[in-house]
Amino acid sequence: MEDEPTLICNFCSKPICGGTAVIRAGDGVAHVRCLVEQTGLRALELQDQAARTVERAGRTVAEARKLARQARRRPGRFLVSARITAIDHAHRVLTLGPLTIRLADEIALDGLRVGMRVTIVGMATTGEQIGFQLMLDQDAPDGPPQATPQPLPASPPLAP
User: Fold this and answer.
1) What is the pLDDT of residues 113-140, one digit of tens each?
2) Of 14, 41, 82, 111, which sits 20 to 30 A from 151 (CA to CA)?
3) According to DSSP H, which parts of 3-84 are helical?
């Protein structure tokens, strides 16, 4: 009866014959040739993954620099007086005609209704207007909604 090999290579699943160079691999053994091949393939995968990570990090750094430049720009102040055309209480957003203004947490939304005329002072940043002060215009005449933000004179830089 022939001697059947009892050891199987963990990588290629072929029997390990006597006289073949082997090495322990996990709980089993492997041909040295198979281990070298697998190690080379894994090294190529890791190099590819590292290259993708470096590329992604470069894009992230570029985006962070862009955001930092935008944050350093001083936002412009605005003043708008118009009728409320919509209120989003969940997001603290008022719509005044074509304008959408997010209100600071300190401004109470209680009592505001669609159709009321308000004056809001705030800061305009890239793509967003944030209202810091809201005044109700009680004696405003009825008429079509008007929403034309007016820039205010330059102010001293904001403290960091």
Assistant:
1) 999 999 999 988 777 899 999 998 875 5
2) 111
3) 32-72
Which residue carries 């909604």 as its tokens? 145
Q: Which residues pair with 122 in a beta bridge?
A: 78, 131
100: left (phi over 0), alpha (psi -120 to 50) or beta: beta
The identity of residue 6, as a single letter, is T
> What is the CATH number assigned to the segment(s) 76-151?
2.40.50.320
Phi-psi region of 85 (alpha: psi -120 to 50; beta: other; left: phi over 0): alpha
Tell me how far apart the terminal alpha carbons of the chain are, to the nearest angstrom.
Answer: 87
Give backbone dihedrals phi and psi of 33, rounded to 5 degrees, phi first: -60, -45
Each residue of 55-95: pLDDT tens digit?
Answer: 999 999 998 888 777 666 666 888 899 999 999 999 999 99
Residue tagged 């963990």 (tokens): 10
For residue 139, what are its two tokens?
A: 């004696």
How far apart CA 159 and CA 46 sit, in angstroms, is 47
Residue whose structure tokens are 């003043």: 79
Whether pTM > 0.85 for this model: the answer is no
Interior angle at CA 131, CA 124 and CA 87, nearest 5: 115
Cβ atoms of residues 118 and 96 within 8 Å: yes
**Phi-psi sector, 52: left (phi>0), alpha (psi -120 to 50), beta:** alpha
